[in-house]
Amino acid sequence: MTADITAAVLGSASAATAERVRATVALLQRRGYALPPGRLGHLTLGGAVTETDVRRIVAFDSELTISAGLVLHKSQEGRASTIAARASGHRFGSAQYLPMTLRFVERLVAVAPFIRSVAIAGSLASGGFVPCDDVDLNLIVDDGHRHLAYVALNTIGLLHAVRHRNKPVDDLTRRPIAPRLMTANLILEFSECHPLVRQDEDMAFELMASEPVYGAGVFREMVDANPGLLQHFPQLARKRAPLERTTSAQPKARWVRVGALEGLAKRVGGAAWRYMQWTRRNRPEALARVAFVRRTMRPYALFDDNAL
Predict the structure, then answer these.
(1) How would DSSP label each residue in 239-257?
(2) How much is the mean pLDDT over the chain?
(3) Could you tell me if 165 and 179 are in contact, meaning their C-beta atoms sit under 8 angstroms apart?
(4) β-strands 211-214, 115-121: how paired?
(5) What is the rounded distance in angstroms from the CA atom of residue 193 to the CA atom of residue 264?
(6) CA of 205: how far to CAs of 24, 79, 202, 232, in Å?
(7) 186 - beta bridge partners?
(8) How far apart are CA 175 and CA 185, in angstroms?
(9) Alpha-helical runs (H) found in 43-79
(10) How do the residues of the chain divide into helix, strand and coil, expressed in percent and rounded to 5?
């Protein structure tokens, strides 16, 4: 019914755009956040639209509203102030944590040159970062080095977090020794990217909303190898990497034998993962959030019996 009303008011072409805007709002809602009209227009499914068009569509749509500066489904209007508070705090939080993350990535790829690409994901990339959050990273690694990359990131991340043990935490980032600060959101082996098993709108958005920091060329190769992603977000074809850094990695020849440690890394990483879930056993909201993220990452989630 809403689509019919929109078509009658805006015309068929604008009605199609309105449907794309609604679908984007629904996608964001599944992930627990919302965007202001201009940013939403840039990230609209099927191609960018202007802020003016977004505002015009919302004005004639019975399901959407702009509340606290964010475009929301009306059923989510009660959460507008909470989401807006995160968005308004992003500038302060990112000013401290973004430079820290760039330095961490430089250290990580220097120690583990089997990591081909690193992109910032999650709230630090999307614009809703607050100091109690952790920093999500998406990695592309050499084949046979997925679990090694996970262990390397978490080992260096733990040492890094010890130096920042006074960081604010919530139920998701609280850890026994040091706060959860740097974490792997998605780790893909190079061959898994050519092509990706998943080229749906959620995977396309995950890549669209991320910010490559290292190996932006590898990131672009992945996009080129998966044209299905562009059906959802053609903006990916023109995605830039303003945060990209370069680093002098050690020669790969020194790491040839490291691949033999992948099995051990899988066991060590799996044990660490299960321990972390055990520490959250009395925090149902944290467990639910972890479960949601892992569902969105399948079949690429590590230590997931339901991944395949």
Answers:
(1) ---TT-----PPPGGGGGG
(2) 89
(3) yes
(4) antiparallel
(5) 24
(6) 10, 22, 5, 8
(7) 138
(8) 17
(9) 51-60
(10) 60, 10, 30
Euclidean distance between CA atoms 35 and 70, whole angstroms:
5
pTM above 0.85, yes or no: yes
**Residue 213 is inside which H or E element, if any?**
strand 211-214
pLDDT value for 306? 52
pLDDT at 139 over 50: yes
Per-residue model confidence as pLDDT tens digits over 31-73: 888 999 999 999 999 999 999 999 999 998 989 999 999 999 9
User: What token pair was written down for 60?
Assistant: 């004639």
At residue 187, φ and ψ (nearest 5 deg) are -125, 120
Residue from 237, 308, 289 nearest 122 by CA: 289
Cα–Cα distance, 169 to 139 (Å, whole number): 24
- b or e along 82-116 (b: 16 or more beta carbons within 10 Å of the residue's beta carbon)? ebbebbeebeebbeebbeebbebbbebbeebbbbb
Q: How many CB atoms within 10 Å of residue 199?
A: 15
Residues 241-266 have pLDDT tens digits of 999 987 655 555 455 566 678 999 99
CB atoms closer than 10 angstroms to residue 239: 16
Tens of pLDDT along 217-235? Answer: 999 999 999 999 999 999 9
Cβ contact 61:43 at 8 Å: no
